[in-house]
Amino acid sequence: MKTALVHFNHSSNENLTTWPDMRTSKWKPNYGDMLVCAAILREVPMEDTVRIGFGGVLSQPVDRALIRGSTYLHNNMDFEAVNKTLDSIDAPLAIVGLGAQNPTQDVGFLDQNEGAKGFVARLDERSKSISVRGQFTADLLERLGAKNIRITGCPSLFYTLKCPQVSIPARLSSRKRAIGISLHSGLMGNIYCVAPKEARRAHVDAIQYGIKECAKLSLFEQGVMTEFKVADSQLPMIERMEAAAAVIKNIAGENELTPQDLVRHMVSVRSIEEWLSLAAELDAIIGFRFHGNMVALLQGKPCFYFVYDSRITEFCQLYKLPYQDVREEWKDPVQAMMEHDWDAANAAIQACQNELKLFYQENGFSIATSDPANKKEKQSDCGAGI
């Protein structure tokens, strides 16, 4: 059975899900996308695949198509390109982990977008069900005419093929704690952020907290070039310090932070496996990145989100995770994690894994029970892919 992998933009090297050097590659990887792609390919074994990107036309027959879900539902999406690709695939469609992107949870924000309505109509007609990231996306899809919806969360949370069970490490309550902070210092006033000034400023509070309250602090960059330069040990120290100063200026932290603070603690990863390995050494991860905090959950560690858009808010509400709006007064994230009901979070995560399995099954995909063997995949001849 041949499967079209639609909008999969991962790369790999020697059985690892890796990405190129941000400094030298024209292709700038999205670390979260890498995790999503890798997770899906581990969860559903597929013998024969061909990759195609949005905007391409599939020129060979396939038996089915699996679309890597992301936050496609927004007004900046090129739905003409998306629908062109879907119309070229003469086979059933299945999209896993579809999400909506808006500064606020306004369920009517796509009411006038005919391309979005066409996209949803195609999915609803040609899929047994549609997998979505949360209730906000489900409500939006229903408003746009979809009927068969399963709320599964993001498939990346089940990368290990097991259901994460989060517990509080004993060290978290002590000053010996090791904390990670997922950074997103480039937030601007657009569809990705309702309060950019507050979101950037919250980085200062989080970093100061990590320096003062933790024995070990890791600041995880996730694809913002200035942050990457701070972590890049191949660069001369003067360039790293200049990049650190630029990050600090952007988050209005000149009076509280020094470039040395960032250089000392900034971390960069080049593969999913390295990312998870570093997360395993920490007691928790707090911060601003959807997948940057998720790697803690994948290791059974708690996390705390600073939210600033519909996407991350929806995620936290679905999985019953602790969070605060960046516009709210600062609260101690460790205390919030210590007091949180993780049994409720674990139950919510388990419910989503159950829904994800049902989604795969009803759309005709077998589910892996152990790490799948590595399969070779062919590149579409229509110019798609990475």
Explain what this protein looks like in three dimensions.
Residues 30-310 form the Polysaccharide pyruvyl transferase domain. The chain has 386 residues and is an alpha/beta fold. It has 2 domains: 2-158 and 347-379, Rossmann fold, CATH 3.40.50; 170-301 and 303-339, Rossmann fold, CATH 3.40.50. Helix content is 38%, strand content 14%. The chain has 13 helices and 15 strands. The strands form 4 sheets. It has a 6-stranded parallel β-sheet, sandwiched between helices. Helix 2 (79-87) links the parallel strand 5 and strand 6 (93-96). Helix 2 (79-87) packs parallel to helix 3 and helix 6 crosses helix 7. The chain is globular. The two termini are 23 Å apart.
Keywords:
386 residues; alpha/beta; Rossmann fold; 2 domains; 6-stranded parallel sheet; 5-stranded parallel sheet; 15 strands; 38% helix; 14% strand; globular; disordered C terminus; Polysaccharide pyruvyl transferase; Polysacch_pyruvyl_Trfase; transferase; transferase activity
Distance between the termini: 23 Å
What amount of the residues lies in strands?
5-15%
Mean pLDDT over all positions: 93
Radius of gyration in whole Å, from Cα? 21 Å
Largest sheet: number of strands, sense, barrel closure = 6 strands, parallel
Unreliable stretches covering 5 or more consecutive residues: 372-386
Placed side by side, the strands forming the largest sheet appear as: 11-10-9-12-13-14
Share of helix, binned? 25-40%
* Mass-distribution shape: globular
